[in-house]
Design brief:
149 residues; two-stranded antiparallel ribbon; 54% helix; binds calcium ion
Length: 149
């Protein structure tokens, strides 16, 4: 019940301005908690780097429910992000807008190539968990506007 009232308050305060980028979580996890959680699952072999195949495994294969076509649509993404990481729907939708970098309504390897390039801050061709974390924090905390082509 408390959660419901809290969410209602967030909706009332922010809903009218559609601040969908304001982080909120069904289980009251903080942004830092969720980010660390994503990174823990992403760096599967725990070597401190996030490889291309690890990103594909986490952001495509684990979301790819129906149909299995290695393309993630809006509903597949939002459904799993909400159910797994427990962020509320409007925030999962905000993340989706930034994941579908070319705005063709599917998340696939083309989007991930752009995302990986964006994450690799020092341009050395490797994404460290630290670089990944900075990218996530930027999304979770800085209310990024979607870049339209
Ligand atoms: Ca790794
Ligand atoms: Ca896309
Ligand atoms: Ca790098």
């Amino acid at each position: 019940m408390k959660i419901f009232i809290f969410l209602l308050a967030v909706t009332v305060v922010y809903g009218q301005h559609s601040h969908s980028c304001v982080h909120s979580n069904h289980d009251m996890h903080t942004a830092d908690h969720v980010i660390d959680w994503v990174i823990r699952e992403m760096d599967h072999n725990q070597d401190g780097n996030v490889s291309d195949s690890e990103i594909i495994a986490e952001f495509i294969i684990s979301f790819d429910t129906h149909p299995h076509d290695l393309k993630i649509d809006h509903d597949e993404f939002v459904h799993r992000w909400q159910n797994h990481y427990r962020d509320v729907r409007h925030f999962a939708e905000y993340l989706w807008l930034h994941m579908d970098t070319n705005h063709d309504h599917v998340l696939d390897s083309g989007d991930l190539t752009a995302i990986i390039r964006d994450m690799d801050g020092d341009l050395d061709g490797t994404v460290t968990t630290h670089e990944f974390k900075l990218w996530m924090e930027d999304l979770y905390k800085n209310c990024k506007t979607v870049q339209r082509p």
